[in-house]
């Protein structure tokens, strides 16, 4: 399945194998993996909790994927986004794009990540020794999304 | 209709979802009704610039009509990826 929202971890190599299985026309596969990072600010991150909107999340991811396919000649797309409580270092999101040539695969992967940041209904809550707080949406993410609409 | 709350909106209101009887014609009208209910709603809806809304799982503006809407969700700006 091209789009998945799940609590469990994913296997990047297995996902690439699945995307390319039985095909010899794919020239480029770009993979992006997002990880839970500990920025080491005032307090160490003990975990990151991702909340989502079941139903709408899948619809939003499918709409983002459809838009990428309309813009670039993609032979395959895989989007996997996790939710739940994740430890520092854990994988959060996987984007795979396959195309005959690398330029489309790279561009589409960037596009998909920029749209995921601002259009997929996920919310992050950081837990530290000083309690939990919701991560604010970043203006830089809005600007990154906007460049695709110019 | 079913009203859903996510992230800190859910925490302020205290429940993830509820059934709301309303005659409001727009999202803004629904927000006014909710604000008048109890302090926790007034607090959650105090700054609309910090909120987003989806009607039947499509992100819309606050002046969007509610006619035939089954599900309205309120949440902060999304932070996926």
Automatic annotation (TrEMBL), chain A:
EC number(s) recorded for this UniProt protein: 2.8.1.12
Q: Which SUPFAM superfamilies does the record cross-reference, listed alphabetically?
A: Molybdopterin synthase subunit MoaE
| Transferase is among the record's keywords | yes
**What enzyme category does the UniProt record give?**
transferase
Keywords from UniProt, A to Z, are: Molybdenum cofactor biosynthesis, Transferase
Key word Transferase present: yes
One Pfam family this sequence matches: MoaE
Q: Name one GO molecular function term.
A: molybdopterin synthase activity
- Reaction equations catalysed: 2 [molybdopterin-synthase sulfur-carrier protein]-C-terminal-Gly-aminoethanethioate + cyclic pyranopterin phosphate + H2O = molybdopterin + 2 [molybdopterin-synthase sulfur-carrier protein]-C-terminal Gly-Gly + 2 H(+)
An example Gene Ontology biological process: Mo-molybdopterin cofactor biosynthetic process
Metabolic or biological pathway, per its Swiss-Prot or TrEMBL entry:
Cofactor biosynthesis; molybdopterin biosynthesis
What family is this?
Belongs to the MoaE family.
> What does the subunit comment say?
Heterotetramer of 2 MoaD subunits and 2 MoaE subunits. Also stable as homodimer. The enzyme changes between these two forms during catalysis.
What is its biological role? Converts molybdopterin precursor Z into molybdopterin. This requires the incorporation of two sulfur atoms into precursor Z to generate a dithiolene group. The sulfur is provided by MoaD.
Designated name of the protein: Molybdopterin synthase catalytic subunit
Per the UniProt record, the source organism is Paroceanicella profunda
Q: Tell me the organism's taxonomic lineage.
A: Bacteria, Pseudomonadati, Pseudomonadota, Alphaproteobacteria, Rhodobacterales
Gene name, Swiss-Prot/TrEMBL: moaE
Automatic annotation (TrEMBL), chain B:
Q: Which InterPro entries match?
A: Beta-grasp_dom_sf, Mopterin_synth/thiamin_S_b, ThiS/MoaD-like
User: Matching CDD domains, A to Z?
Assistant: Ubl_MoaD
Top-rank taxon: Bacteria
- What name goes with this protein? Molybdopterin converting factor subunit 1
The source organism is Paroceanicella profunda
- Supply the gene name: moaD
């Amino acid at each position: 399945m091209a789009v998945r929202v799940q609590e469990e971890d994913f296997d990047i190599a297995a996902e690439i194998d699945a995307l390319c299985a039985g095909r010899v026309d794919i020239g480029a596969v770009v993979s992006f993996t997002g990880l839970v990072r500990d920025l080491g600010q005032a307090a160490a991150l003990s975990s990151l909790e991702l909340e989502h909107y079941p139903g709408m999340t899948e619809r939003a991811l499918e709409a983002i994927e459809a838009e990428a396919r309309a813009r670039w000649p993609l032979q395959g797309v895989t989007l996997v986004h996790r939710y739940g409580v994740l430890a520092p270092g854990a994988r959060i999101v996987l984007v795979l794009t396959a195309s005959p040539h690398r330029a489309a695969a790279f561009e589409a992967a960037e596009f998909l990540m920029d749209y995921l940041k601002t259009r997929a209904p996920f919310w992050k809550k950081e837990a530290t020794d000083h309690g939990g707080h919701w991560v604010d949406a970043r203006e830089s993410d809005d600007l990154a999304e906007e460049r695709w609409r110019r | 209709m079913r009203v859903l709350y996510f992230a800190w909106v859910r925490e302020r209101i205290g429940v993830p979802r509820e059934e709301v009887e309303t005659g409001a014609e727009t999202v803004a009208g629904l927000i006014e009704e909710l604000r008048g209910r109890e302090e926790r709603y007034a607090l959650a809806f105090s700054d609309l610039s910090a909120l987003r809304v989806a009607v039947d799982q499509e992100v819309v503006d606050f002046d969007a009509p509610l006619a035939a809407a089954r599900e309205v969700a309120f949440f902060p700006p999304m932070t996926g990826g």
